[in-house]
Amino acid sequence: MKTLIHSGLAVLVVALICSCGNHSAGQNTEDAPSFDYLESVVNDPSDYFPVSVGTKWTYNITVGETQPMSYYEAAWPIGDRHISYAMTGYYPEAVKGTYRLVVRVKSKTDRQGPLEYRLGVELEVLEDELGVFRDAKQMFYAISTARLYMANLVVTYDARDGPPIGSWRGGSSHEGYSVRLIFFGAKPGTLIGVGQNPSDLLLFKQLDTGVGARHGAPAMHFVRTVAKNSDDDANVGDSNELFTEHMWYAKGKGLVLLKQSINGRTSMTWSLVSVTKN
Question: In this structure, are strands 97-108 and 200-208 parallel, antiparallel, or unpaired?
Fold first, then answer.
């Protein structure tokens, strides 16, 4: 767990780490979609990230051969300061098997926790058998279109939960929050991290016609990489990566498949069962 105490308001800083052209390192360029091909298919990234009110996603989450992990970076206002920390953990309910998750877009909102983006929606969790969002008080999508189309998952936490750091616990009378980039529109090979020296990076790898074909639409393939820090459990292996998540967003459907792996072993798979829109 990494902790940082700082003064003033928390600011969301997005660092464009690198843009690697039309393919990522090690990828066969003959198989990589060209930027022209991407533009011809992804005319509007929002087509791959539907947020209309009433949209409901149902997933089956399968726990694999090793226990899945979670990671988030949260901030808590305390007086005129914020205390921020990165939290790594496991899902306490996770044993090998399949769990149901149902999430719905509840309403539009101009305020998403600490953010006030023009394009935002509140989410509601209807079922969560694994407890993926068990600590959440509220959840939002906050979307920026200023430079790139960028969608953030914003989660707020009850003030009573407080940061679990010694005498700070319960020291805040305000909600805590986390903000994580989960989707963006750019050319293949673009890698984005949030903040200074980010541990959580998101890469748009390519347009994937294989996964997309199974869902009747093209799919944008992202790779999330979470790096270890000195406090993380040594049992997660010798790699500098804590875990990796491959995510596919299909046109008109949103997230259709997520695969998390730890040291090359599958820990968790989200498979879309259905998406419905009012």
Answer: unpaired
